Amino acid sequence: DTGVSQDPRHKITKRGQNVTFRCDPISEHNRLYWYRQTLGQGPEFLTYFQNEAQLEKSRLLSDRFSAERPKGSFSTLEIQRTEQGDSAMYLCASSLEGEPYEQYFGPGTRLTVT
Amino acid sequence: RKEVEQDPGPFNVPEGATVAFNCTYSNSASQSFFWYRQDCRKEPKLLMSVYSSGNEDGRFTAQLNRASQYISLLIRDSKLSDSATYLCVVISWSASKIIFGSGTRLSIRP
After folding, report:
1. Burial A82-95 (b: 16+ CB within 10 A, else e)
2. Which among B57, B50, B6 is positioned nearest to B31, based on CA atoms?
3. Which residues on A lie below 8 Å from B51 (Cβ)?
4. pLDDT tens digits for A1-26?
5. Is A43's CB within 8 Å of B32's CB?
6. Which end of chain A is more exposed for a tag (fewer CB within 10 A), N or C?
C-alpha cells in the first residue's frame, strides 16, 4: 500500500501527558499537511510542510503543539500537556508541489484524553 | 459568518435521483477548490478538483462560480453507495489558508 500512513491509529492518554503521532506521506509527495477533526466538523488546518520547511502554522495551534519533518519525508506532531479539548481525530495528508495540489489523506490518529 | 459554508443537510433522496450541493466562500482571492467525500469514521477521500471551466467525472459534475463565490457538486443517477458526507475545500495559497466546510450529509434511500 503506497498511500499515506499514520501511527498510531488510536491513542488514549491522561490529561497532562505528552503524545506524539507519526505520518508517512506518499513517497513522491513533498507537501505534507496536518489537520484536526472533531465530530460533525470538517478537518481544521493545523500546519503544512514543503519538504522539511514548515510553511504555515494555524493561529489555532497553541504553543503546546509542534510538528516536524526533519528529512522531508515522514512528519511527527507532538502535543504537550494534553487537555481534554485535544480529543479529536488528527489527520495527515500529502500532495505534490504544484497545481492542482490534490491532497490525499491518511486514516488518522484518534486521540482520547481522559 | 464562516469563511466556507455548506448546508449540513441531511439530504435524503431516492436512488436514481439527481442531487446538488453548494459551498459558498468569502475570500475572493481563493485559488484552489476541491470536493471530498467522507464516510463515517473514515478519512476524507478526494472526489474532484474544481476548475473554472467546470469538470465532470462520470455521474459527478463540479462547477465554480467566481462571481458569486460558490462551488457546486451535482450527482446524477445517485446510488446507495453515494451516501456519505461531502466536504468542500477552499484554498488561498497566497494567504496559506486551507479551509474545509463542515460538510453536507447525503443519504440515498432504496
Report:
1. beeebbbbbbbbbb
2. B50
3. 100
4. 579 999 999 999 999 999 999 999 99
5. no
6. N
